Amino acid sequence: MILTKEPKISEKQLAELEQIVSEFHCHIQVIEGAHRNIYAIIGDERSQTMLNRLLGLSFVDRVDRMESIYKLMDIRSDLQHHRISIGDIVLRQEPVFMAGHCTVDPANPNYFIETAHAVKEAGAHVLRGGVWKPRTSPHSFQGSEESLNILLEARSQTGLPVIAEVMDSKQLELAVTAGLDLIQVGARNALNYSLLREIGHATGEKKIPILLKRSIHMGPIDEFIAAAEYIVAAGNPNVIFCPRGTSPKPDGYRNNPDESITPLLNAKSWAPVVVDPSHSVGRAQFIPEASLAAMAYGADGLIIETHIQPGKGIGDDPKQAITPDVLKRIIEDSKTIWELRKKYH
Ligand code: PEP
Ligand code: MN
Predict the structure, then answer these.
(1) Shared-domain flag, residues 52 and 89
(2) Nearest-atom index, ligand 1, CA of 134
(3) Which of 13, 63, 143, 267 could crosslink 9 through cysteines, CB 3.0-4.6 Å?
(4) Burial class (CB in 10 A: 0-12, 13-18, 19+), 6
(5) In this structure, is residue 73 part of a structural domain?
(6) pTM of the full structure
(7) Residues 60 and 170 grouped into a single domain
(8) How far apart (Å, rounded) are the C-alpha atoms in residues 182 and 205?
(9) Within this chain, do residues 281 and 160 fall inside the same structural domain, yes or no?
(10) Nearest ligand to the C-alpha of residue 134?
């Protein structure tokens, strides 16, 4: 990672950096921060000769080579002061709450529109709605592109930013073109490195926040952080970690609740953590405890499947969506826990 004396360098100076690192089979990725740019060296950066030649340039202040496999996501990275905003919320400064259907039902758009108004009323800041769905069985409903318009209609009626999951390049392009405010990478694609890189490239210009779920099979924490590194290294520093439960699991829960990794993520990386209790415990009755536990563990927010009439929903909603009145109480109590935590840090 190259720190320059001035916050930003000229095109000509950037070309000089690129020329040097390319001789060592590396390239430069510019990460644009609000106040200063960071010039990340992508590739094997161990050559001492390369380091010395970079340090020989008059406009270079420092070159940090980290041992870490995720030098941009690392807590010591110069992105440590980077802040991600969603609407009026600045993550890490106040908690964020995302809520809405697991799956938008294209046959019954009114449920989603009504849920959107209700979650806003309950205090949510972001509206979730699954358009394309990763289903374990190929015979289950796979989501529908029609739902994208329902999501956008709900956004225009409520003014809430919206989030949906994408699973491939085509969906990514549609999501970016439609102007989705956040994009989710689901647990099944959490280690799909070519998709992660593609998402980083496609969202880098608009800096669309990416909610990156943890992979299902209890992957190591470093693997989770390194997956986020792919998105950042491809040009988008707005990545949010989302623990969502792992497998194997205790009988009775959908997954093994893993909100407890939040302090570890916070110790190792600067990126915010928004926990998904819905896919973790997988039953509406357990969501309040799982949500408050996540906040107590230091989460910066929650994403919770919520439906005005869960029994009328599709996808996961009939079993794990909570109702907006429960959401309202969870949001209120989560804010209390957020304040309580300040005693300790
Ligand atoms: C979802 O958010 O509805 C979903 C399918 O999430 P996950 O990838 O965590 O299973
Ligand atoms: Mn779901």
Answers:
(1) no
(2) 5
(3) 13
(4) exposed
(5) no
(6) 0.86
(7) no
(8) 14
(9) yes
(10) 1
